[in-house]
Amino acid sequence: KGKAKGPKGKKITLKIAKNSIRITLDGGRRLDLSKMGITTFPKCILKLADVDELDLSRNMLKKIPSSIQKFQKLRWLDLHSNQLEELPEAIGTLQNLFYLNVCNNKLTTKNLPEGLNLLKNLHILNLGLNCLDSIPTSLGALKELTEIGLFDNALTTIPNSVKKLPKLKKLNAERNPFPDSIKQEEHADSIKRIEMLHLVQEKDLCSSCLKMCTDERDKLNKLMNVTPSRSKKPSFPLLLTPNSTAKDNQEEWRLR
């Protein structure tokens, strides 16, 4: 009688989609279909392809179609917390994309499209909580990238082309099986330009941890202001607080 079908999911109509459009602080249009129980990409939203932001996070999507390329104005795309095993090659046509979050899916290195390296205006990329065992060296072409999340994968190394991106300020590669011999040296060096690692928000820390981090940061700032040392690189041993996994609040990855 054939294979058992998965959950149907909620059917999104054009009316529902239109009612889900919000105006952003800078006057853009955001289509928010997060937490809707969607299992398949709603074709009707292709009629709303002129939106600036698209949020399909926290659903049950397994596939994003090539028709995503119709969203040419898109600057912000949030697909986190779905069941995506791959991304379409057509995603590389979204030349205005500034922010891409595909955290907490089932993406593998093999199924990362080459088109990702065409996103020349991308500033923020979150690939955390997936099944990646390596990072394509071609991502080094994303010269505008300032933040990248690689946490909770199966990485043993990070390509130099990514570590040495000229504008990179925040790199989170916590909870990957890096070899112990290179964990401290290689990855400490790779973030030498970074002022702060990607931290959890203050509200997510217990009071004692928050006080400890604040005290250490104050000490470090005082030390750097009073007795700066040119020969010694600043280190942040107590500020390596990782992001918690699969958070409901993904605003820490949202451009402020």
UniProtKB/TrEMBL annotation:
Cellular component GO terms held in the UniProt record: cytoplasm
Pfam assignment, any one: LRR_14
Entry keyword Cell membrane: no
InterPro entries reported in the protein's UniProt record: Leu-rich_rpt, Leu-rich_rpt_typical-subtyp, LRR_dom_sf, LRR_domain-containing, LRR_R13L4/SHOC2-like
Record keywords, A-Z: Leucine-rich repeat, Repeat
Signal peptide: none
Disordered: annotated span: 229-256
Residue ranges of domain Disease resistance R13L4/SHOC-2-like LRR in the record: 68-206
Residues spanning the membrane: none
Protein name (database record): LRC18 protein
Organism: Phaetusa simplex (large-billed tern)
Lineage of producing organism: Eukaryota, Metazoa, Chordata, Craniata, Vertebrata
